[in-house]
Amino acid sequence: MNRAHAASILAAWISVISNIFLTVIKIVIGILFRSQVLVADGVHNAADVVASIASLGSMKISNQPADNDHPYGHGKAEVISSGVVAIILAFAALFMAYESIKSLFHPATEPHMIAFIAALVSLIWKQVLYVYTVRIGRQANSKGLLATAYDHLADVYASIAAVVGIGIALLNRVYPIPYAAYGDSLAGIVVSIFVLKLALHMGKESVDILMEGSLPTEKCTRYEELIQTHPYIKRIDRLRAREHGHYVLIDARVSVPAYLSIQQGHDICREIKTMIMIQDPEVQEVLIHLNPWYEGENHD
Q: Are 19 and 104 within one domain?
């Protein structure tokens, strides 16, 4: 197990344990002190527990070597996990919105300082977790861990809304503010919008990868530039590059002088593959198809 993968697994376990702890704290305090936004955020955290476990499992699967059934490897396990997290976040957002809107039609509950402190602790904790997991996730290019990191970011939004909502409701005791008594519920609606937006973004990214969407034009252009530096390459006829979880697969058709031998063609393919993989460690496989090139002609 390489260091990046080991760090990813550790970050995932920290996320699971943190989410379990925060779920219990938020739901218990939210029920005891009748904080709607804290209960909704606790339910959101409960969904995060499932999401974190799914990410942890997917990271273990994605690093298994290629086999006869999966010759391109198991990298997309993390993409599937990311999609699952997006769905969980979407349902959590809709639940929070429903519960918060429903509470607006009931008498406002009395805010409590303990609920405010719980929301503040959650905000700080989740911000630290987000910074930590997104850094490790980017280093390892782990879609599963990045999904967990964005899940933490959604919790940061939720906690900010909870802190502001409960804080305004508490402030209303000293300085009466119109509708401030419903600050807790209104904050729940605001956070549900942020979480839903994040879920849609994650879901779209997962679908793009599962549907074999191409990498950004800038990266494909960079691969073309690297291939064209080889002295025998006369033309790039086609290049396709796609993500396969935490690594990249590239297919390219290039034209080389027709007089070259099979051995020379083989060496060219190997040199191009090595060059690209050195320049971009995310690339795990490069498949090169050679076309014959004739002086003054333009055959494929």
A: yes
